[in-house]
Structure formats: structure tokens, C-alpha cells
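Re: that chain you flagged

S.,

Sorry for the slow reply, it's been a week of failed gels. I finally had a moment to sit down with the sequence you sent. For the record, here it is as I used it:
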Amino acid sequence: RVPAVPYATDRNFARVGTGKEDFVAARGFMSRWGHFQLGWSEVDATTGTARGDDVCVCANVLGVWIRNPLQVVYNDGGEGAGVGA
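Prediction finished late last night. Pasting the C-alpha cells below so you have them in one place:
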């Protein structure tokens, strides 16, 4: 549950496959922060995803690399949530 403070909540849903094998692969991709490995942005793949884990998103903006330090507020990923790969 998200604390009663003004945190931004981002929820997006998209079908990326069907069945347990696809689900496990997609969950592993997300726990490795694969959705940030875009060439112009990145997160260390060993960064945890459990509540309280520190995260640093690095992004290249107009040729300048910036760092955005964050903290995981919650993880509703179910079984195995919080395990970085």
C-alpha cells in the first residue's frame, strides 16, 4: 500500500505474452530494470526492487548525463518481488 502522501503512481498495462514462461521472463526483465536500459537511460541491473531500496536512474539529456536518485516506495510484483537479478 502506498503511504498517504502525494507520491506519483504510475501504472501501465500491456500484454507481452501469454503463459507462465512469458510472465517469468517479463518479471525478470522488470526486476533487472530492463525497461530503463535504452542507451540514453540506465539503472544498474543489480539494483534491488524491494521497498526502501535505493535506485539511481541515469539519463543522457542533450549530451549531459544526469543522475536521479530515487527510493522504491512499494512493489506489488507478487512472489519474488524485491529480488534484483
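What I noticed first: The radius of gyration is 14 Å.

Talk soon,
D.
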